[in-house]
Amino acid sequence: MRLRLAAALALLTATAGCTVAGQAAADDAETVVVGYQSKTINTVTAGTLLRAQAYFEKRLEATGKKYTVKWQDYDTGAPITAQMMAGKIDIGSMGDYPLLINGARGQQSEQTRTKMVAVTGYNLRGALNTVVVAPGSPVTTLAQLRGKVVSTSSGSAAHGLLVQALRKAGVPEAEVKVENQQPPVGASALESGNVDALSQFVAWPGLLVHKGQATVLYDGGELGQPTLHGTVVREAYATENPEVLKAFLQAQLDATKFLWQQPLAAAEIVATNTGLPAEVVYLYNGANGIATFDLSLKPQLRAALATDVPFLTSIGVLQNIDLAAFVDDAPVKEAVGAEYAALESATANQAVIAGTDPVCNKPVQDPATAGELWVFGATGTQPAADPTCLLKAVKSIEATGKKIRAGYVPDAVTGTRWFADKSHWVRDGVQFFPFVTATAAAKYVAAHSGSAKISYAEAVKAS
């Protein structure tokens, strides 16, 4: 097991730290430096996917001026912020907590000020962050983390999830020892037993669960607090090069629309360029995925940033920030144009599961129940109207000798999309309901007389 995880981590961290790509700048070309996190896959529309499709370069070419783009890949947002403060990165993307730290640090000097100008991916319930434990762990509830050791990245949204979830469960933070570790280190520590749980951001929880190296203890969607990723730019650079920022945001919209229209193809492109399994990328970035991609700076997301500030202040990583000065939607409004108002008012995922369920023979319409199957050898995915229909489809497909590459279902309460075979299932009469955590499944059973927990294999057989 340890060797398998080591191999996976070696693949995932092959580009750890800073890797500069792209051709050397021509003598008459201006260089634009973009910092991104290839494996933080909810920033792909401002990073991995954007780069792979060369959308930014194409938009820059349309300006009539010569530019060379240098892409710098990092594991987290902190080094991107450090490079921006030094004037060495012009445009970057990162998660909500790092964005706030970026803004606060930038506001310490007129020369280093930055602005958040767009959103990449978000989840209004907070499901982009998850707490996991090792398979077979005796820890089955958050309350049981008292006296235990939990790995997380200090100051990240995953750290925020851990603290807020513990508070909600009535567990004082002082009763849990937190180890500040980068995701790959934390994953190894969880496997070796050096920590009892891991609280991390996308795509680590999904990756570890997919590989059978973790199980979910707490679904971030239970918290109900929005989490997001976004695009940030050095204010001085944006002032001097408005056409470059406009081209970047238009290119980000190009990448976003491609992901909406071809989510499976987008996931496979990201998988190829990151070494992540396509099944994991598609869990988050696919149709009805955990992440909703949209550039607009919605009121709900602005409010979430304001709510995040007290936590970051309480742990000593944020002194003060003027959010009104940091969050600026003027550039994205100009770049997107007439489409912006509709984007800002909508919250539904535009990468949707649609079509007709071929097993239950009914239209797939409700994202709260819609599921999806990815069969080995198939060029596309098969929609399912609800979890019960998905189980029936699995049974039918496997009866033909075909293998399921991945199945996706939404949690019956939080709506968090998860792997069907890694979900906790409950049978209630003739219906079957999936849950991301065993605790959530147990709560349902306790509240519904006659219902019972059932394994995935038993659910498929009984469907």
UniProtKB/TrEMBL annotation:
SsuA/THI5-like domain: residues covered: 124-265
Keywords: Signal
Keyword Signal: yes
InterPro entries named among the record's database cross-references: SsuA/THI5
Signal peptide range: 1-26
Protein name, entry field: Nitrate ABC transporter, periplasmic protein
Source organism of this protein record: Paractinoplanes rishiriensis
